[in-house]
Every structure is written in C-alpha cells, then in structure tokens.
Amino acid sequence: MKLGRYQLLDKLATGGMAEVYLARATGPMGFEKELVVKRILPHLAADGRFVEMFLAEARLAARLNHPHIVQIFDFGEADGTWYLAMEYIDGLNLRVLSKRAREAGMELPPASCARIIASVCEGLAYAHERTDPTTGEPLGIIHRDISPDNILLSREGAVKVVDFGIAKMAGQELRTQTGVVKGKLAYMPPERFREVEMDRRMDVYALGVVLYELLTGHKPYEAGSEGQLVRAILYEQPVPAVKWRPELPPALRRILERAMAKEREQRYADCRALQSDLEHFILSTGEPVGAWQLARLLARVTERPGDEKTVVESGVPGPVRQARAPTPKPMQRVPTPPPAAAIPVPRRTAEGPRPEPADAMTIRERAPQRSEAPTIRLEKPPQLQEPRPSASPREEKPTESAQRRSQVRKAGAGIMLLLALAACAFLWSEEPVQVEPLTAQVTSGR
Ligand SMILES: Nc1ncnc2c1ncn2[C@@H]1O[C@H](COP(=O)(O)OP(=O)(O)O)[C@@H](O)[C@H]1O
Ligand SMILES: [Mg+2]
Predict the structure, then answer these.
(1) Which of 17, 20, 16, 57 is nearest to 36 (CA)?
(2) Beta bridge partners of 87
(3) Annotated catalytic, 203?
(4) What is the tens place of the pLDDT at every residue in 273-319?
(5) What are the pocket residues of ligand 1 if the criterion is a CB atom closer than 6 Å to any ligand atom?
(6) From-to residues of CATH 3.30.200.20 in the chain
(7) Do the beta carbons of residue 89 and residue 158 sit within 8 Å?
(8) How much is the mean pLDDT over the chain?
(9) Phi then psi for 417, rounded to 5 degrees?
(10) pTM above the 0.85 mark?
(11) CATH code that applies to domain 1-88
C-alpha cells in the first residue's frame, strides 16, 4: 500500500486517533530508507479537531532534535489524510518490554530501569527547556502523555520518547473542546484533576509511575474502575514498591516516592533533578549501564525459549553465551576447635602455635590433628584440670581406692622383705630354697 511517496509495509499499532506503519521511502539510484509513517485514522481525517491536534504534534515535534526524542522527517497530506514520517525505532515500547519480561519470569535490573528513565529525563528536560529560536522565549513544552507506550527501547539500546500528540506549548488549552481529559489516567498526577495550570512536574510524576511499573511489573494503584483510580490518585497512598520487589534498593524507593509525590511541591522540580538522582543511583551500583547493556537486556527479554541466553545482569561486556556456573557445594561447617586451654593435650603441644581462630565466613575443612580434642563446640571454655589444694573436709577423707593403693604398696614392701630374707637363708644354708612356693605363699597371705 502506498501513502504519498511512502510504501506502507506493516502496521505497527492502531491508536484512538492514528495508525502507525513501518514504511519504506525510495529514491533515485536504488535509494531506500525504512521509516515509520503515522497517519490519522481515515474516518477521523475529516474531523477538524483531530487534524488540528495532529498538526500541533507535527509542528511541535519538528522543533525537537534530541537523541532521546524520535526524529520527525516529514509531514504531509495524501489520499485525504494527514501523515507524519519519522525515524523507525526497531525495538519495543516499555509496556511490551515489561510484559515480555514478566512472561519470561524475569525482573528488570534496577540499574537498567534507572538508565532508561534517566535517558527519558534527558530528552524531556531538553523539550521542557526549549526556547523559541527567534524570540528566545521558553516554549513551555510539556509532553502530558508520558506512559510506557510512548517510550521506546531500540535493539541498539537507544531510548526514545514518541507521541507528542497531546503535548502542549505554553498558552494552549489543557482540555480538548469536549472537556475530556486526554492521556492515560494511570500516569496523571493529582493536580491533573484539579483546576490548576500544568507544568513540567506533570511529566516528572508520569515518569515516576513508569519507573514503578518497570521495577515491579505492577501499577501503583489497584482500582477496579476509572472513578476508583482517580480517587486513589487523589487521596490514597500507592502500594509500596517493596511489596512486589522486597530487595529494591532504598535509594530507588526514595526516588519513586519523590517522583510520585502527590503534592507537586514535594516532587522533583524537574526532569534534571530526577535524572541526577537516577544517575547517582546507577553510579552507586558500581556497574556501567549504557546503550550496550540495554541492548542486551532487550535481546534477553525477546529471545525465544531455547535461544542462547545472554549475560545481562552484570552489565559488563562479556561472552554472549551465559557461562553456567558450577553448582556450589554446600559449605561444610567445621566445628570450632575448643580453646587451647580446654584441649587435653601434652604440654609440649599446648605451648606450640595456637590454632587459628575459626571465622564464620572462612570456615574450611582441614585434616583433624592428633593433638586436637574431639570436635565438640564448647559454650564456655572449661578450666584447666590442675591439682588444687583440698578445700573441703569431705575431700580430706581417704577414698576407698586410695586405701587399696596403700595396701598394695604395703604388700609390695612385704614381698621385698621376704625376698631379702630368702636370699639370706640361701646364703646360710646349703639346700636350695624354692622361691616359687614362697612367693605364692606371700601373695596368698596378702
Ligand atoms: N517511530 C517509531 N518506531 C517504531 N515504533 C513506533 C514509532 N512510533 C510509534 N511506534 C509504535 O506505535 C505505537 C503507537 O504510536 P503513538 O505515536 O504513540 O500513537 P498513538 O498516538 O496512537 O498513541 C507506539 O507505542 C509504538 O509501539
Ligand atoms: Mg501513544
């Protein structure tokens, strides 16, 4: 299908107002360029209000030239409808990215989420600060429709803001002629439902909600209807992000709280302030997160089951194939050796080098040493068992075994005496003395 000088190849999306196509522009000498064509839905092309909004988008987007904002090439009319031609971002919008990650059972790495939102901040801050090139007056641009659908991540890891369809420049009406609030409710700050002038903090709030969703895979308010949602945005506290992701770093939690503050005076004053905190958080992780790491994240999220996995979490360039770490052996806890004083070993060993203190983190296996006591953990080191002077009268009484020992000693002395007498008798008599019966006699007489 052709639209003006563009060949429409594939429909990428259909919104309430327009269709988005992947298209090809051709030129002389085989020139070809893939791009995106967004055109007003044919049945709305006759509606002046839509055409005016579309023209406003085109005029505004044409003034923006930034690496984090999709580049507009062309604007025109063909076949009774208006169209915009822009660069093609080959990748995913953040809503699809988040959904795919959830389906794959993955949580997006916090530093990558922070990097994506920091990049959007850079693009939006540029738009917010844009001035009229002739007068130098601030244009007062606010995107007003920041949502995961309107932020794209390319295969090369580039982050781009799209859809300035309801963006406004200073002085324009906030509401459409019908009085309908445009944009997506879930990303609207409380002040959007009050009669107050919007400012750039509206985009800051929406970015806070997008960051919350990237990190948790959930929306900050649980509501069954639009009415309930508006009430929750106005009066209720969001579900804490840690409910979905308990290990969420405190710095990120604080960033979320500040970006999504209900009172805009408590919110980041602008996207630069939000970006600054996000950059500090990324730095604090100690890992670089740039386009290359985001490209790998996207590859991992979109790979089909069975594809080779890529290493993303480390954020450090490395081999594409995920190295499968060997399953670590459960750490063996070796009982702590008892204190040297408690080990009943010969003195020589006790005075040698003391055993290394066992540290909970550096416990390792070692061959049991002969001098070591059985592996029993002692709560309290016992005292050395040294002979002590008797203290109690009870201990002064000789025990039964002591009495037996003294009897044996006496019997031994008796035997020695008898042997001596026998030797004397042998010397004095000429007849040999039979020692054996004598000894037996002594022993039996004990
Ligand atoms: N330049 C682009 N490159 C690739 N995809 C795009 C581009 N612009 C828009 N899209 C896709 O089309 C969807 C709708 O585009 P958008 O401009 O937001 O239209 P709408 O005004 O209907 O919301 C986006 O969420 C994105 O997925
Ligand atoms: Mg959109």
Answers:
(1) 20
(2) 35
(3) no
(4) 999 999 999 999 999 999 999 999 999 999 866 554 433 333 333 33
(5) 12-13, 15, 17-18, 20, 36, 38, 70, 86-89, 93, 149-150, 152, 162-163, 165
(6) 1-88
(7) yes
(8) 76
(9) -65, -45
(10) no
(11) 3.30.200.20
